[in-house]
Design a protein that fits this description.
The complex is a heterodimer of chains A (113) and B (115). Chain A contains no helices and 11 strands. Chain A is 0% helix and 55% strand. In chain A, the strands form 2 sheets. In chain A, strands 2, 4, 5, 9, 10 and 11 form a 6-stranded mixed β-sheet that branches. Chain A has a 5-stranded antiparallel β-sheet with strand order 1-3-8-7-6, with no helix packed on it. With 115 residues, chain B is mostly beta strands. Chain B contains no helices and 11 strands. In chain B, strands 2, 4, 5, 6, 9, 10 and 11 form a 7-stranded mixed β-sheet that branches. Chain B has a 4-stranded antiparallel β-sheet with strand order 1-3-8-7, with no helix packed on it. The chains are: A mainly beta (113), B mainly beta (115). At the A-B interface, strand 4, strand 5, strand 9 and strand 10 of A face strand 4, strand 5, strand 9 and strand 10 of B.
Chain lengths: 113, 115
C-alpha cells in the first residue's frame, strides 16, 4: 500500500542548514510535496517536485528526489526561527481518479537562536 | 482573494451526538477534499468531491461519517453518534485541477473534541 515515512524531530541552530528526509513507497507517485504547518494554522504548500525531476531549488529551499530509492529531502538554507514548524512530506498523483494526497507523520523542526 | 474557510473553528460535543462541519472552498474550484488529522499525525484522506458527486469516499472510516456537496460549492461533513476517537482536526482542501493532487489549498481546519 501507500506509505510515507519521516523522522519525527530535528533541532538546528539559527543560520545553519536544515535537512528533512522522507521516504515513500508508491513508485507511481507523480508529484511529491512539502507542506509547512505552524501552530494553529492550516497547511501551507512550500514546494513540490515532479517525479521526473531530481532537484528543484526555490530561494532558500532545495528539494532532492532519489526516485530509485524513493527518498525525498528538503533542505532549508540559513534556517531562521520563523522556520520552526512541522513539515509534512506528501505524495500525490497528477492525474488519477482522486488526486488524494498521502502524508507522512510530520517532522517537527526546532530552530534555536 | 479569499481562501478556503471552515466553520466552526472549534467544536466540542458529547459522545453520541451528531455534528456537522462546513467547508467553503475557493470560488470556482471544482475539486474538494476532506482530510482528518489526529494529534501527532499527518492528515489522512477521507473523501473527494468532483462537483456535486463524491468521486472517492474510500477514506471514510465507517458509516457514521457522511459528506455532501449539493450545489458543487460548499461541503458539509456529517458525523453521527460521535465517539471519543473521532476527536481530531478536520481539514478541507480545494483545487481547480479535478482528480489531480496538484495545488490543493487547505483551510485552517475544524478542531473537533468529543467528550
Amino acid at each position: 500500500g501507500e506509505d510515507v515515512e519521516q523522522s519525527l524531530f530535528l533541532s538546528v541552530r539559527e543560520g545553519d542548514s536544515s535537512v528533512i528526509n522522507c521516504t515513500y513507497t508508491d513508485s507511481s507517485s507523480t508529484y511529491l510535496y512539502w507542506y509547512k504547518q505552524e501552530p494553529g494554522a492550516g497547511l501551507q504548500l512550500l514546494t513540490y517536485i515532479f517525479s521526473n525531476m531530481d532537484m528543484k531549488q526555490d530561494q532558500r529551499l532545495t528539494v532532492l528526489l532519489n526516485k530509485k530509492d524513493k527518498h525525498l529531502s528538503l533542505r532549508i538554507a540559513d534556517t531562521q526561527t520563523g522556520d520552526s514548524a512541522i513539515y509534512f512530506c506528501a505524495e500525490g498523483h497528477g492525474s488519477s481518479n482522486t488526486g488524494k494526497l498521502i502524508f507522512g507523520q510530520g517532522t517537527t523542526l526546532q530552530v534555536k537562536p | 482573494g479569499a481562501g478556503v474557510s471552515q466553520t466552526p473553528s472549534n467544536k466540542v460535543t458529547e459522545k453520541g451526538k451528531y455534528v456537522e462541519l462546513r467547508c467553503d472552498p475557493i470560488s470556482g474550484h471544482t475539486a474538494l477534499y476532506w482530510y482528518r488529522q489526529s494529534l501527532g499525525q499527518g492528515p489522512e484522506f477521507l473523501i473527494y468531491f468532483q462537483g456535486t458527486g463524491a468521486a472517492d469516499d474510500s477514506g471514510l472510516p465507517n458509516d457514521r461519517f457522511f459528506a455532501v456537496r449539493p450545489e458543487g460549492s460548499v461541503s458539509t461533513l456529517k458525523i453521527q453518534r460521535t465517539e471519543r476517537g473521532d476527536s481530531a482536526v478536520y481539514l478541507c482542501a480545494s483545487s481547480s485541477n479535478p482528480g489531480s493532487s496538484y495545488e490543493q489549498y487547505f483551510g485552517p481546519g475544524t478542531r473537533l473534541t468529543v467528550t
